Amino acid sequence: MAITLSTLDKTTRKTLDLRTGDTVKVHQKIQEKNKTRIQIFEGMILARKHGNEAGATLTVRRSANGYGVEKIFPLYSPMIDKIELVKRSKVRRAKLYYIRDKAVKEINKRLKMQMVRAPKKDALAAAPDNDLLDNTPEDIDMEQVKAIESSEK
């Protein structure tokens, strides 16, 4: 089984101005049996290490089905077909590892709100119970929310 790699143009990869906070699409070659396919991984760059030298890496994070997924890509790997810049963001840190905790806190906050909701009187089968995006203020008992938040501290 022979793996065919694309020719890598190091000068184009060197000129890529990728920074932490940028949202990128990384096109990675995946070898399955006799076929090679391209898998796209889109996410935010949490860290860029080792500058522009041969061992430079990107740590990219995305959320898939409610779970955070991180991959570390070597910048000059021939298995990386191309890297597209989707969105540029201004950040104040060189490494954005705090995003991991921030995402978990946000999910827990939504779950708390879901648990505190008062039962609806005339709701038959409007929506599933795990609908985290439905944040109607009239269904939430704010006193219970404050009591839960104060008990956590």
Contiguous uncertain segments of 5+ residues:
none
Number of helical segments with 4 or more residues: 3
The strand line-up of the biggest sheet is 4-3-2-1-5
Query: At CATH's second level, what is the architecture of the largest domain?
Result: Roll
In CATH, what is the class of the largest domain? Mainly Beta
Please provide the ordered H/E string of secondary-structure elements: HEEEEEHH
How would you sum up the global shape?
A: elongated
How much is the average pLDDT?
80
Provide an overview of this structure:
The protein has 153 residues and is of the alpha+beta class. The protein folds into 2 domains: 10-94, SH3 type barrels (Roll), CATH 2.30.30.790; 100-152, no CATH class. 24% of the residues lie in helices and 32% in strands. It has helices spanning 10-15, 98-116, 142-152; strands at 23-32, 35-49, 57-64, 67-74, 80-87. A 5-stranded antiparallel β-sheet has the order 4-3-2-1-5, with helices on one face. The longest helix is centred in the C-terminal third of the chain and has 19 residues, at 98-116. It is elongated, with a radius of gyration of 22 Å. The N and C termini lie far apart (58 Å). The model has no long low-confidence stretch (mean pLDDT 80).
